[in-house]
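Anyone have tokens for Nucleotide-binding universal stress UspA family protein? Sequence:
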Amino acid sequence: MKTITVLTDFSERAENAARYALRLAQHLQTNITLYNSFLVPAAEPLGGQVYWSMENFNNLQQDSEEQLKLLAGRLEEELSTLPINAFKPGISCKSQEGPLFRQVNKIAADRDVMLLVMGTHRKGLASLIMGNHMRDIIGSVSLPVLVVPENQFFKHLDKLIFATDMSKSDLEIVHALTELAKPSHADITLAYVQTPGTTEDSTKKLVTNFLEEISNKINYPKIYYRTVKGVPLKEGLKWLTEHVTCDMFVMVHRHKSFLEELLNLSNTQKMAANINLPLLVYPCHEDIAERLITDVELGYQENIIASAIS
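Reply: yep, here.
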């Protein structure tokens, strides 16, 4: 069965994200895995390599596993309030040593994992801009990542907004979104920000071609479209999140483009702090091959460290 993996550091925000993921898993009829990565404090470097004691490692791993079991117990207690015939997601736990951003593609290697879920460090998208940790994960993982704002609770999934640049690779994202939308027959709105300098003719051609591709390749009747005209990207996205009602906002992470343009703008912090929507970030498949090379290099380094402590 497909699985949603929840990345947790045992904070209140992370637990809120886990509860959101639990209800989403019930909605999609999938299981969930609670995942924690822990770091072992390094001892003094010796000969250019870092060593730590197995006692520290075992204590930290045991603490991580115990915290995961306690979190799982609280989620199972929440499931116990559901009707007898309701679908109840299975809950499993996993703990590993190492920086989280180096572990996420190992998680993604499991074909049953469909989605990663994590909480923000503050409301809305502010933590995406302020926190390198979260940006590292979004920038390196080959799975979609759902970022759940503080105090956001899953109630239903009736409308998704996908901020798209109408590129061909986004057709795959639209197809994936239909799988999220089907259980509740949710609307999918494709939103395109027509930035200053973009002509009406070029926009019309781009949109017409994209919508024709969707009608030919994707069989889902509740896909709609709207344009935000004549504004910079960040203002267009801000307008969408403030004026168009939705249950989840969807974007694609492209290196040196689109989402990264938003993340790298320091003057968007105020805007981001006011956004309080779950943000689903899909990776750009064109970037995955490049990331795999990095993963191989990181794997080699981790094997050296593993040999040092074994």
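Residues 66 and 105 are 24 Å apart (CA to CA).
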